[in-house]
Design a protein that fits this description.
binds zinc ion, alpha/beta, binds ligand ZLM, Arginase, Chain A, 8-stranded parallel sheet, binds calcium ion, 33% helix
Length: 375
């Protein structure tokens, strides 16, 4: 971080109510992690170093810029009691246990989406260099249905906002899962390039092979980097940096949207990668030094103490400040034992990407595709 100590104007969107929603007992997605992240950010005294803002909640009408009227109308009225009837017995809109009709689901979505839309507008108006919404990043939500813990696609709504001002937007997704909802939304346009790094093979949602590259005018503008279990910081960097550098050269985006899903960290409850906090944050630092307007959103992340550590540290990276590795006292201090440090360490799992040069093949293939982009 010391390499780029120069300042950026950072806008940080946080709604104090967002952490109080719950997907239900035993569900791995815990909105409370946003609240814990905020406590850490506050304990490190970062709040007075940036614009801390509470976004206007997204209205149903705003959500229909991407989603169907019918789906948004459903979401705005569904309750735990009416879910069975309104989903036609779990066959429409919400399918299965991943997306329960929890109490307040619409309000929760309106905060997540409201934050991403406001973040986009803050950049586009030129009043921030980096805008952050840790409650966003819900990349699986589809036009007419919820998927993978995501109901409203705040990213698609935010990028649509950026497209009013910027000719080309780059979307990068470092969540352990494929960013399928965002890819699908922009699959046929060259005004948004999507690039997802994800675990591929017997893993949700099952899409994101290197052969999926976009269609029509969008041909070549979807980039997929399928990975195997156990990827380390070093391996990740060896594919992230060359692929993203080539994208920046050939695509020259006017703004970048980075989905910072932290289920790609070592020890995540649902993830299977082996990134440390510093390896994950290296992706944020890489974009920060490009001096292109940047939006940071959250996404996955199921080992709550590590999610909070990482998004707190990435907020510090956006600000370009040094932070003490020893955690300051805060309301959740005891969660961070036994070391009480701002760190997520790697473990000794095998990096399956290093078998039979599989990572080299993926990198070479991605670079070859990018060199074939229509001039
Ligand atoms: N079953 N409860 C990532 C989204 C991942 C689909 C297999 C549900 C779970 C999971 C839900 C308490 C992001 C699938 C899973 C059991 C069909 C997924 C509720 C445990 C529970 O205990 C659980 C009743 C639940 C869900 C595990 N679901 C683990 N993995 C994935 C979706 C979202 O990180 O990318 C962005 C936020 N779903 O694998 C099943 C096939 C439903
Ligand atoms: Ca991803
Ligand atoms: Zn994920």
């Amino acid at each position: 971080m010391a390499e780029t100590p120069d300042k950026r104007r950072v806008a940080y969107y946080y709604d104090p109510d967002v952490g109080s929603y719950t997907y239900g007992l035993g569900h791995p997605m815990k909105p409370h992690r946003i609240h814990v992240t905020h406590h850490l950010v506050s304990a490190y005294n970062m709040l007075d170093k940036m614009h801390v803002l509470r976004a206007k909640r997204a209205s149903a009408e705003t959500m229909t810029r991407f989603h169907t009227d019918e789906y948004v109308h459903f979401l705005s009225r569904v309750t735990p009691e009416t879910a069975d009837e309104l989903t036609y017995h779990g066959t429409r809109f919400l399918v299965g246990e991943d997306n329960p009709a929890f109490e307040g689901v619409f309000e929760f979505c309106s905060m997540s989406a409201g934050g991403s839309i406001a973040a986009a507008n803050r950049l586009a108006s030129g009043s921030a260099d980096i805008a952050i919404n840790w409650a966003g990043g819900l990349h699986h939500a589809k036009k007419r249905e919820a998927s993978g813990f995501c109901y409203i696609n705040d990213i698609v709504l935010g990028i649509l906002e950026l497209l009013r001002t910027y000719p080309r937007v780059l979307y990068v997704d470092i969540d352990c899962h494929h960013g399928d909802g965002v890819e699908e939304a922009f699959y046929t346009t060259d005004r948004v390039m999507t690039c997802s790094f994800h675990k591929y093979g017997e893993y949700f949602p099952g899409t994101g092979t290197q052969e999926d590259r976009g269609r029509g005018r969008g041909k070549g503008y979807a980039v997929n980097v399928p990975l195997k279990d156990g990827i380390t910081d070093e391996s990740y960097k060896s594919v992230f940096e060359p692929v993203i550098s080539r994208i920046l050269e050939v695509y020259r985006p006017s703004a970048v949207w980075l989905q910072c899903g932290s289920d790609s960290l070592a020890g995540d409850k649902l993830g299977c990668f082996n990134l440390t906090m510093h390896g994950h944050a290296a992706c944020v630092q890489f974009f920060r030094k490009q001096n292109i307007p940047l939006v940071l959103v959250g996404g996955g992340g199921y080992t709550v103490k590590n999610v909070a550590r990482t998004w707190c540290y990435e907020t510090a990276c956006a600000l370009g400040i040094e932070v003490d590795e020893r955690l300051p006292w805060n309301e959740y201090f005891e969660w961070f034992g036994p070391r009480y440090r701002l760190e997520v360490l790697g473990n000794n799992m095998e990096d399956l990407n290093m078998r039979e040069g599989s990572l080299d093949k993926v990198r070479i293939n991605a670079l070859k595709h990018l060199s074939e982009l229509r001039p």
